[in-house]
Specification:
126 residues; alpha+beta; 6-stranded mixed sheet; 3-stranded mixed sheet; 2 helices; 9 strands
Length: 126
């Protein structure tokens, strides 16, 4: 059944080469394979992975599309900022960030955009 299978996120990119540069230069990730000329596969921790593929639909979602969970969000944000990642600031009912971080009973979270306008997230549970 699905509950026993690994999950793979799928992200759109208008420019696959620009996306590859972003994930390498800003996030320190290299593709583990290139299944087709217009797609990139990345492997992450604990058997997880994500695919980036070229399409004109990139950047149209207004929600978090993929996230990483860490045990030290401040350390991760410092490293990402050092690589040029800019964290989003939000002020919505139920969600307000300070210096890029939202804190609630669940923990802490921060959001940033990739080169294609996809909303990515990093979080730390309390």
């Amino acid at each position: 059944m699905l509950k026993d299978l690994e999950i793979m996120a799928v992200l759109p990119a208008k420019d696959i080469n620009r996306a590859k540069d972003f994930y390498r230069d800003k996030l320190g990730l290299e593709p583990s394979e290139t299944p087709e000329d217009d797609s990139l596969m990345y492997r992450a921790g604990k058997g997880t992975s994500f695919l980036v593929y070229q399409t004109e639909n990139a950047g149209s979602a207004k929600n978090t599309q993929m996230g990483w969970e860490t045990d030290n969000i401040e350390r991760e944000m410092e490293e990402l900022r050092g690589r040029g990642v800019v964290f989003e600031e939000y002020d919505f009912p139920g969600l307000k960030t300070e210096n890029g971080v939202a804190t609630n009973d669940w923990g802490k979270a921060a959001w940033f955009l990739d080169s294609e306008g996809n909303i990515l997230n990093i979080s730390q549970r309390s």
